[in-house]
Amino acid sequence: MKGKSFFSAYPVLASLIMMLVISLVIVFIAIKGTNLITHHGKEVPAPDLVGQTIEDVALIDDFEIMYSDSIFSPDVAAGTILSQDPSAGTNVKKGRKIYVTIATSVPPKVEMPNLLDLSLRQAGNLLKTNDLKLGQVIYKASKYNNVVLEQRYKGRIIAAGAKIPYQSEITLIVGKAQQEQLLEENE
Fold first, then answer.
1. Which residues span the domain enclosing 156?
2. What are 26-37's pLDDT values in tens digits?
3. Predicted structure pTM score
């Protein structure tokens, strides 16, 4: 056995050592290759796009600007960027997608709630909850005091579930009991 090499004397152990060496070489090549492909360590801060218009950011070459959402904001000009992801100053690679939310000039539609048979106070709260405004309140003789009898939008009766613009004013026709009726009911 004197002339035998290590590989022929211990074939199983030699195979394990060779597999370990080959695995380490493959892992080393994969790590170095990944760093080269992904440009590891070559990052730049994301620009601050909030407050700029979509026309201004179209000139930015280092990043791809993606419009992810639009929100109606009456106080901000249409096309103005309201938020971004990733946020300004975050270290990212060139060519990265930056998702922005922009202001739109078209108000969203909201669903008209059913206000019939509610008290005036409840109806006002429900309008506010649904992003609508309480407009004119018109009182009409009724045996039910302070109860909503009709709901109107732009002078026409509007059904519950109808889609109308955000922050629309709703006119309510509310019952007003006569003094004699109130006295009779309390007796």
1. 109-186
2. 999 998 888 777
3. 0.52
